[in-house]
Amino acid sequence: MGLLDLRGAVVSTDAMGCQKAIAQTIIEAGADYVLALKDNHPALCEDVRLWLDTEVACGRLPAQETVKKDHGRIEIRRYVLSICSSVDQARFAATVRQHWGIENQQHWVLDVQFGEDACRTRRDHSAENLAVIRRMALNVLRHNGPSRDSIRCGQLRAALSDDYRLRLLLGQPSSATA
Hints:
- It contains six helices and four strands.
- It is of the alpha+beta class.
- The protein has a two-stranded parallel ribbon with strand order 1-2. A two-stranded antiparallel sheet has the order 3-4.
- Helix 5 (151-160) crosses helix 6 (162-170).
- The N and C termini lie far apart (49 Å).
């Protein structure tokens, strides 16, 4: 058995995780996988989109579509079950939503607010160490700062005030957070 017990789990991954060997390892661990593809690989994304559309049009793959009004707009989601190991359409749709929820709630914030994608640190373990520090800082700001503050505002306030920064780290309310 590997380091993690994945039996019955669904593992979603994108970018570097979309490899046959990784998918095979997940299957051997008793889990299902969902491989996500984003538009930052435009040629591949377009090829896959064209293939999925063709398979749906020919009736070889079922598509599920949901329409929901949320955040002042109509959201139409179309799920085509193919690039994964599960055959449960509802579980697949839920996994896809969770995957993109993580992408939007954490990865996007880490890139935009902390400049993670622009960081070119590569020596030894420095990239991994900085990634851990960024995630710790994000969690401290989200869970210990005032709910009315944006991440950017919390970063600025912490940079300018030793007292505020200490209270954030200790999880203590201050007059600025009350």
